[in-house]
Every structure is written in C-alpha cells, then in structure tokens.
From TrEMBL, chain A:
Keywords assigned by UniProt, alphabetized: Carbohydrate metabolism, Cytoplasm, Glucose metabolism, NADP, Oxidoreductase
Subcellular location: Cytoplasm, Cytosol
GO biological process, one term: glucose metabolic process
Domain Glucose-6-phosphate dehydrogenase C-terminal: 215-506
Protein name from the UniProt record: Glucose-6-phosphate 1-dehydrogenase
Cellular component, GO annotation: cytosol
Pathway(s) where this gene product acts: Carbohydrate degradation; pentose phosphate pathway; D-ribulose 5-phosphate from D-glucose 6-phosphate (oxidative stage): step 1/3
Role description: Catalyzes the rate-limiting step of the oxidative pentose-phosphate pathway, which represents a route for the dissimilation of carbohydrates besides glycolysis.
Family: Belongs to the glucose-6-phosphate dehydrogenase family.
Top-tier EC class: oxidoreductase
Taxonomic source organism: Amphilophus citrinellus
Automatic annotation (TrEMBL), chain B:
Family to which this protein belongs: Belongs to the glucose-6-phosphate dehydrogenase family.
The protein's name in its UniProt record: Glucose-6-phosphate 1-dehydrogenase
EC code: 1.1.1.49
Major place of residence: cytoplasm
Keywords assigned: Carbohydrate metabolism, Cytoplasm, Glucose metabolism, NADP, Oxidoreductase
Top-rank lineage group of the source organism: Eukaryota
Pfam families tied to this protein: G6PD_C, G6PD_N
SUPFAM superfamilies: Glyceraldehyde-3-phosphate dehydrogenase-like, C-terminal domain, NAD(P)-binding Rossmann-fold domains
Domain Glucose-6-phosphate dehydrogenase NAD-binding: 52-208
Amino acid sequence: MGQKMSSDCLTRSEVFGQLRRELYGEEQSSHSNTHLFIILGASGDLAKKKIYPTLWWLFRDGLLPDNTFFVGFARSNLTVDDIKAACLPHMKVSDEDKDYLSAFFSKNSYLSGRYDDGSSFDQLNRHLSSLSGGGNTNRLFYLALPPTVYHHVSTNIRTHCMSLKGWNRVIVEKPFGRDLQSSQELSAHLSSLFTEDQIYRIDHYLGKEMVQNLMVLRFGNRIFGPIWNRNSVACVVLTFKEPFGTQGRGGYFDDFGIIRDVMQNHLLQMLCLVAMEKPPSTSPDDVRDEKVKVLKCITPVEVSDVVLGQYVGDPEGEGQSRLGYLDDPTVPKDSCTPTFATAVLYVQNERWDGVPFILRCGKALNERKAEVRLQFTDVPGDIFGDSCQRNELVVRVQPDEAIYLKMTTKRPGVYFNPEETELDLTYKSRYKDVKLPDAYERLILDVFCGNQMHFVRSDELREAWRIFTPLLHQIEREKMCPIPYTYGSRGPREADDLMKRVGFRYEGTYKWVQPHTT
Amino acid sequence: FFLEKMSLPLSRSEVFGELRKELHEDEEFHQSDVHVFIIMGASVRVQSLTEWLFRDGLLPEQTYFVGFARTNLSVDALRTACMPYLKVTDTEAERLSAFFGRNTYISGKYADGDSFSKLNAHIESLPGGPGANRLFYLALPPTVYHDVTKNIKHHCMSMKGWNRVIVEKPFGHDLQSSEELSTHLSSLFTEDQIYRIDHYLGKEMVQNLMVLRFGNRIFGPIWNRDSVACVVLTFKEPFGTQGRGGYFDDFGIIRDVMQNHLLQMLSLVAMEKPASTSSDDVRDEKVKVLKCIAPLSMSDVVLGQYVGDPEGEGDAKLSYLDDPTVPKGSTQATFATAVLYVHNERWDGVPFILRCGKALNERKAEVRLQFTDVPGDIFGNQCRRNELVVRVQPNEAVYAKMMSKKPGVYFHPEETELDLTYKSRYKDVKLPDAYERLILDVFCGSQMHFVRSDELREAWRIFTPLLHQIEKEKPKPIPYKYGSRGPQEADDLVQRVGFRYEGTYKWVNPHRL
C-alpha cells in the first residue's frame, strides 16, 4: 500500500527510508534497531478492530522498522492464535499476503496478567527484554483500555516496564477524562510518570488526510493568506454527520454524549487548524503552541449559543431508522444525552474577532460527512444585481476527500449573468492510483517516528475542556432536554436557525456537482 | 443547436425573450419588430454566421438579410457558397430554406451613390421595411470603407428604426491612420451606432473575466500588486502563414494579435470594478487602464520570425520567408513578447507580459496570474507560486495552481490544482462562436463587448512608437524554429521581469480515465 501511495516506483525500503527522513530525522532512528509494540488491552474491541489490523498493514507495506515485535497483554488467558482469529476479519488479507501474514504473527506474542499487579508487569518486562536479545530496545505502549484501569497500568508500566536504553512512548486513547477536573487529574497522573514527549494522545481526526492537509493548504498557498481573516470570512462551519444511530451500542455513548464524543475533540481540533496563526516552523511543538493559542482565545461556550438534539425514530423509515435513541435497549429510558449538537464559538483575537465558528455534529442524520467550510463575506459593491452567492472554500474530510471552492462564473453560453460553480480537486479523480492510508496507520507511524505534531498535548486538552466544561456541567445539572429530531433528517430546525442567526448564509441554490461522472 | 446549450428546455421564443431581457434592457429594441441585416461585401463567413443565429431562433422572427457587393451574384449562388460552412442536418433543411427565403442580394458599386439608393429602395420594399431597424456589417477591405460608410449614411439610413454599423479590423495601422478612420466614422455615425468587433471579446472565457473578478469575494483582496507577481497573456498558434502571408506581412503579429486581442484581455484583467455592467461604465474602466500604460519601448520587447524545422514534416519545414506571398527579406515579426506596466495604484510595478506568435509548439490562448511567493515559508522552500489560469482556448477552463499536502503518509507540499474544465463540468453546453455572440449583441444594442473609439486610440498610442521604430530601423527579428516555444530571448525577458517558471508542474486533466 505504501508503494501504491507514491507515484514514483520505489521499493518498500526506499519508501520507508524516504518517510523516515521526512518524518523522523536520521539520528533518533539509530537509537535502537529493535522496537517493541506493546498493546495493553489486547483482547479488547479497539485492539481487535483497529490496532492489530493497522499494525499488520504497516508491517505488510514495509513501513515499520525491520526488527519490530508485537506484544499483547490483557487479563484474559489467550494465545496468539486466538488474537489472530479475532483480528482476521478486520485485516483485509489478500491471498498473496499469506506469507507476510505468517511473518507478522511470528513476531507476535501474548501475555496475560492483572492490570493492578506489579508482578504481572515484571513478567511482561522480562518477556520484553528477552525479545530484544539484550540490546537496546524502543518500547511503544498502546493503552487500549477502559479509563478505570488507566491509573494502575500507567503506574505499572512506569515502574516495571520502561526500556532503560531505548526510548519509551505511551499511546493513549480517549476518553481523556469527562470534564476539566477529571482530565486534569489524568494528565497530572500521566505527567507524574512520563514526560510530555513520551505521551501520544490520539485524536484520530488528526490522522485524516484532509485534516493534515489544512496546514499545507493554508500556509503553502499565497492566495489564501490575504483572505483568511475576519475581513473576508463570514463564518466557518465544522461539520461531522453520521447517518446512523447508536445501533444497540448506546450504553457507552450515553455516558458521554455527542459533545464529548465528537465536538470537544475532533471538531475543536479542526477549528484550531483552521484558525491558528502560522507557526515559526512545522516542528510539532511550534504547531501545537499555535493551536493552544487559538484555544486560549475562545471563551467557554454559552448555552445560548448551543442547540442540542436527540433523534427519534422515523415512523416512515425502514429498519434502524424507525428507532429513536431511547429505543436503544442499552440507553437509560429517560436519557437526556444529546445525539446532536450545534455550537457557536468565537475566537477573540485580531484575526477572528466576531467571526462565528459553527461546530455541528450528530448521529442519525441525513448523510455521512465531515467537512470544514469557510464561507466568505458578500462581494462589496456588487454590480451583478445581487445575483452573486457567497464564495465558500470546502475541505471535505470524509467521505470522498475533496477541496472545492464554490465560486461565481459567467453562465456559459450567450449569457452574461453569474451562476454558481466550483474549482474542484476531488482526490479520487485527481489521484487515481493513490490509496490514502487510514488515520491510525499514519498516527502509529508517527509514534514510531517520534513526531508528535498530530497528537494532543496536555495544554491543548486542558484548554479544550475549559471551553466545554461549564456547558457540560450546566446541561447535566439542569438536565436540559434535547430537541427531538427525526432519524435521517438534517437535525433540529433550531440548529439551522442558530446558524442563520450568527451569519451563515444558506441559499439552497447550489449543489456540488461531481464533474467527473460520465 | 442553441437549445442544447441550455439546461432548461425553453422554446425558441422564450430563449430569445430571456436573452433580450438580460442583454437589452432599454426600449430601443421595441422600436420595430422588423430587422434588416445588410452584409456589405457579401461575405460567406458573415452570411453563415447569420444563418446559424437564425437557425437557432436567436434572431427576431422578422429579420431579413440583404447582401451587397460588386459581383453579380444570385442568392442561390450565395447559398451554394455557404453550404460547406453551415453544417445543416436533415431536420434543419426547412429552417435553412426559410433563411434563404429571407435573403436577397443586390450588386452595385461601393463608390456609387445610385447603387446605394437602389439598395435603400430594396430595403424599403421588404415587408415592414420602411420602419425596420438596420444593421450594416462592413465585411470589406479598408480601401472602400470611406466610400461605403459615406454612402450608407447618405442613402441607406432608416428614418424610423435604429441603424447600427459593424466594423471589423484593421482599424488603421497606427495611431494616425486609426484616428483618421475614427474621425471619419464619427462624422457619419454616433458612437452608439458603431460596433467595432474584436472577436476575442466574444469568447466565453474573455467574457467570463469580469464575472470571475467581480462576482467572487475571494479574488478581491489578492487582485493587486501586493499579491500578484506578474500577469501573462498568451496567444499561440501551431501553424504559420500557410501561403497567406501576404496580408499578414503588411501588419505583423503585434497589430494582428497583441495590440487588439491581448491588450483587450489585459484591460479586463487590470481594470477597476465599474460602477455597473452597463457598456459605457465598463468601457470607461478599460480606457482608464490603457491611459495608465506608457508607450512600449524596444527594450521591453522581443521579436521573432519562424524558420523551417528541417526535421519537421509538411508545413513545419517551411519558414515564414518560404511563403511565396511574403516579400523576400521581410523582417516582419511572426512572434512578439512585450512587457507592459500599468502605472496605477493597483498595479504599479507588476509586469503584464504579452506573448503571441505563429508556428509555435501549441495552440493556446490564456490569461495567467502568477502570485508572489508565500512570505515566511515554513515548508523549506518547497512551495511553488500559486497561479490562476483562465484558458480561453482550446478546452476552456479556469484553474488555480496551488499547493496541497502530498497525499498519503507524507507531510510535504506538492503542486496540484483546483479545476473547472468546461467540457467536464458543463457537458451538455455548447459554447457559441464568438461572432455569433457579438452579432447577437448588436441586435440587442449591447456595446460592452465592442471597442470604443477612445479605447482604440489608447491602444494605438501604446504601440505606435514601437511600431514606427520597428519600421524605421527594421531590426532583424530573432529566428525561431517552427514548432518551438519561440526565441529563447523571450523566455529570458519574461524571467528577467519576474515570471517564475519551474517546469515542475503540468496541468493534469483530472477527468481523463
């Protein structure tokens, strides 16, 4: 897959060499030749569906260092074969990959133990040492665990499993707490054990092609510089929409709600990348410094700037769409958890003062879509009799990655009136032979390479929680009732009203046209 | 054929009604429903154009066509001459007959008042003729302009309807001769009766320039000297004079292409936003741009003349001087690159590079804005300059060359484009011919896409000193090979004034399978 990504014909090792040079710098990589990737929670869903398959793809494509071993650790008594059986359905193995697959699993081992038991981790450490053959090893610990055991596991890793000669990196998954206080407690705990440059907090949106592209688009193009500010931008809309509901897995979701699940992390991360100033360099900390600066300029969200929704079944729908959120048997009967939210934030700095950043996300909506949309202001002194619609720059994150600039052109033919069209860059048309890697592939590779740019730093996380915690507490305290919306709809009408009120213009006259269909 | 262009199925009269509403908002049009289109010179080309428009139902129903020339011709003979250009399908045969049923032909002498009285009597004799609006298309060599226009004025003007006169280039060959012609014309007709055709103004993408610029908020803040490094206006033809160099040699590439077509495009790129889209508001702004351009000096110009490519095939083996109609030893330029500066607040210091030539490596007409480098680049000088390209022909397109993250597990920028290719985006739209649009504009009384006297004067003012110097000193144009990019010296000049060409990017048609 790595080979297919590049247009030049490179061998696997050349690709990796190139990547390493680009992402990594030569010195660090010579620390050690052996890498140990330890999955804590190896029997869980995340490990089975995401982590093992991702490691396999990276291995298959020759993107991992040659001497890499994978060690699973969990409470259950399992064998590597059990792990393999559980993961295979998610690994997309083709016939010609069979040999590689055996090679991959021959580098795997599994240990069971208790998360709160120091001796289990001693045992793990002995196993890790035995794999390295006594040489230097770098260790990557992936915490694919429920928050309840984070404390013990991280303490035990620190106490028993750190490599003394190579580097140690710890990959952490959300939830990173559930409000400012709990998140700060977790961060304080982690930083008592590890340094910031050892901690890799995953927000998988930061691994997406188009999210990563935002920086290049913004800072690599002269034409966007002069218009990327409050003088030209009317509003920014960050959207995440899913066309399905909780599908019987609402139990976990109900503890968190859509704001914690999507808005406070994924959408806010995209906001930072859209709003931040140009960093002095592309080094991870320079970039993250700028992202934090954006967050610091955002005041906590007010309830009056938020619309919450909860989906109800569509009696005319089919299958799942007949079911409301409350019909999910794992959801408490009287749950007020929002499955939809629209919130308006303002970045109070010189560049963005007064420009609404609209964050929209929801389940059981009319489409699957994640995008960043900058809507520009009206043309001043219009000479076309008010027939010009606003320009918009849209970066579509998923599905069907694209960048397009909604703009006005002369209606083709013997006319002279303006009509809407777009300048388009649709990836699957423009880059036909390029397979975009999965977000997790990129991120895990980044951990190997020691690149923290696409990971969430402690202070970013703190600021993100600062913005949303008062709102979340108020919602929970007052048990605010979300507005019901029909499964498969655009969400509550009130959300569209809010957007309109703060300045987003939706004319309904334009629909993106795939210019390449025949 | 026009109906196919539209996305909505409209009847012919609806289409025409809509066009009329859009293009022509004053009442003049309604003075008379009868129009007489008089072609002076009985040109097959103009005849064919009117037939297309008639067939497409774009002309008012009651329109008659009258040919006038010295030769003794019949309508049938004209029809036969036109047939190869008409592209008539079987279903259109009836419409074709209807068209030629509206055609008449009169022969007469251009200098002879009586011939024009006869022409006038003929026009009056047509149904509704006495009150009809009259369009005179002067498809004539410049030598007879004087006589014909005078005779039209004295013998053929409609007293009740309006009169409009369509004039084609050459509009003189320098400032003085052009001014004489303009003075003559304006002694006979008012400015709003004169329609000077520069057919580039009838092209889809040239007409689009105004909408692109003034209909989009995003272009406003970057369309100036702060963001634009240079503007390149290009016209390239892949063939030489092909045995028809006699006419060309009198004029040369600067008069043939640069002083009119390229300069018109320059005006549309550089002008300020007009007060409205009314014809004179737009032309006022174009004139203002020209007024800010100093006459060209020799040091800002590279001239070339093509020589045969011994390794080429067919015509490519032939030099300009091998054309038997070209005078031996001619120093006429078949290629020119010139750099102009618009000395106003928006454009001071920004080079406008005009390039045109025959027998080059490709057929292309385009407008290209190259933007300045990204200030404070953080990607280790991997960023190439942004460019906005409006491709006029062939294959109409607008695209913004820009940087994007190299797709995949990379994080470095690479060149790509945001693209709008007409034939992909507007699959069912057939773009009308430039002349078709312009003739329609004359019917509708819209002068926006025609050259006003003062525009013409300013254009000649800019180029006349250079042209005179060339003719006086007869500098030898730099030879360049048939099928090449033109003289290396032209690329050097372009680079010297600030255009950056890296050779790393090639436009990719994203729609090709």
